[in-house]
Amino acid sequence: MVNVIGLGYIGLPTALMLASHGIEVIGTDLNSELVATLNAGRTTFKEKGLDELFRDALTSGIVFTTEYQVTDTYIVSVPTPYDKFSKKVDPCFVVAAVEQVLKAAPKGATLVIESTVSPGTIEKYIRPAVENAGFVIGEDINLVHAPERIIPGNMVYELIHNNRTIGADDRAVGEKVKELYASFCQGEIVVTDIKTAEMTKVVENTFRAVNIAFANELAKICRHDDMDVYEIIRICNMHPRVNILQPGPGVGGHCISVDPWFLVGDYPSLAKVIDESMRTNDGMPDFVLNRIYDIMKEKGMTDITKVGLYGLTYKENVDDMRESPTLQLLESQERHLATGLKVYDPFITDDVVANQYHDLDAFLRDVDMVVIMVKHDEIRNNAGKLKDKVVLDCHNIIDQPGVYHI
Ligand code: SAJ
Known about the structure:
single chain, 16 strands
């Protein structure tokens, strides 16, 4: 039996996937409300294919609880916040989860850490936690790091099809855990050591962050001299060895906007390109705000309350708002003392910010200018409704004369 600890964005789909592929699974989370929701037959976030997977897993007998189980395999997938000040990973949740697991774990159990951690975190924090609990690593407890790589919006597909990395002290233990993941994962599963696994995960997200920062910097250069950054990137990407990502209003989510900071925090004098890239990405919401002011001036608009931000989530077709560029923009708007921007997102049904709408038509009725912050399918499918609006399209998805870009 596998006890999956932490039933959030990664732990829940992983637990469901294992259960629906014949593995006996118990999911544990400290949040009793979340556990009650799952036990009432409801998932806790929206994700393509998740509800179907949830039904399969329930049929296969998955159980959700707040209790840690006595078993031979634990998968820990709790969040790893980072300290915004020092830019270092804060392993408090992982350490706390490991300490709880060790109260239940029998000798010989395998402890798989799925949470993303900066290179060296397992050495620095997890090994001492295990040893302080009186376990000998490699004899009483096997330690493994198996970072996830699935992308929100396509998690279920990627869980099955992505390649994976398993980091283990002992190759035989790594192979055993590989077998467990191979129950559902059709990708290649590489077994390596723990520190390499930690580093590869952070490097993958850092590569994407730096690439996006490059695109954002190009957008600024092109804006400065009125060049079309999208056309330039499109043509460059026709070269067989060039693959530039797209500029945007900022980088959000709990991965690409966070993980690269771990490297900056741990290697401040070495991670120069990464540091500058993260600052470039973090500066984009402000860049968009200034763009809004410039366009308003050009159009003779003086009332900021006639401007609407479309999208609150960190990216398209998900309901996750963590580190969202729109939230960052609203924060910097407060610093400019010009509050009043209207906001709408089809995926956010609760009231989370001021001047928020829950209906696209009502939102559009009340604004003269629309800023596309998130390229949800909804706005792509309703682009015709923007005909009479001033549009600042931060994702280059609206094909209409006079549309402004970042
Ligand atoms: N973005 C751009 N331009 C682009 C692509 C993305 O501005 O060309 C922005 C998005 O709008 C969003 C942010 O970047 O705000 C991040 O979105 P994303 O779709 O690039 O990635 P995440 O954060 O949803 O998921 C990433 C993935 N990592 C990689 O592709 C290397 C995923 O595979 C990881 O599993 C996930 O991080 C994670 O959990 O670490």
